[in-house]
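Holo prediction. Input below; ligand is adenosine-5'-diphosphate.
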Amino acid sequence: MILKSANGELITTEYVLPPDNRAAVSSKRSSMETPVIDITDLSKYYGKTRGIEHVNLEIGEGEIFGFIGPNGAGKSTTIRILMNLIFQTGGTARIMGMDVIKETKKIKKISGYIPSDAGLYSSMDALEFFRYCIRFYQVKNGDQRINELAQMFDVDLTRKVSDLSMGNRKKVSIIQSLLHNPKLLILDEPTTGLDPLMQSNFFELLRSENRKGMTIFFSSHILGEVQKLCKRVAIIKEGRIIQVEDIETLRKKQLKKVFIEFNGRVKKEDLIIPGIEGEIGGSDNIQSFIYSGDINMLVGFLSRYTIINLMIEEPSLEEIFMHYYK
Ligand code: ADP
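Structure of the complex:
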């Protein structure tokens, strides 16, 4: 059956493709406690277009879990299924043991959600909007909570939500998701539109809420951002989870992107340096590669050549995918 969602998107309730577990990365843990998020063989096709395929994921209570992948990988699709904004094509998703479709009302009461587009176009002013939310959630001392959060994020409560800039609408969306002290916070690319100071305040707030027990599921296409906040990450690429890893393990890999401009031709075969990941690119006097070794060793090796230019920088997430996770 094809249905139309509130935002006009076509959603399907049918199985389009049969489940195929062979290629799914098993990211299930074996703990006995009920996971806060439990995703099993979840797939979503938009007509024939792949959204996600056979996603398995388990997130425990009190985790700050990162969900990273390039644009179009399937992060929003997964999250929107969790929030019951679209229906999966196959598989199941549970939050605190509850089915995301059948028990969505209960789930909404205990979870907060920040969408990637912060598409709030309310004609209410920010204060009216937040009061509407606290009535819905029956928050005690709601005004106090509104004022605390509005102050922290420097939001003018008298401004109409629809008149706010994109960054300020994002802040309204963040505050709204936190008003009812949810047990689980699901954030879809939450830092888009926030300036660096606000981002840092926001991360501090998330750490503090997490210390009080909140579980956080955080999607981003920026590896550095996820590394700052999360303890564990799942990497999604082309709709499939390709890796679930502790952030410490990722950090230890310390990948760097290296460009060298030599004074004269240097053959790739001559660059025998432990720590070069994957293939060396470039031609003649310019070579580039992803490097995971000790920078001192690299510099020591290169000292035998005359170098015109040397650049060492953080690789993008895409480059890590291309060179490392291949
Ligand atoms: P991400 O959040 O990682 O950027 P998405 O979940 O938005 O990725 O998209 C995953 C894939 O699903 C992409 O190929 C995208 O084009 C497709 N997709 C997402 N939403 C729709 C839609 N409403 N209709 C058709 N295809 C969609």
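The pocket of adenosine-5'-diphosphate is lined by residues 9, 46, 49, 51, 69, 71-77 (CB under 6 Å). That is the main takeaway for now.
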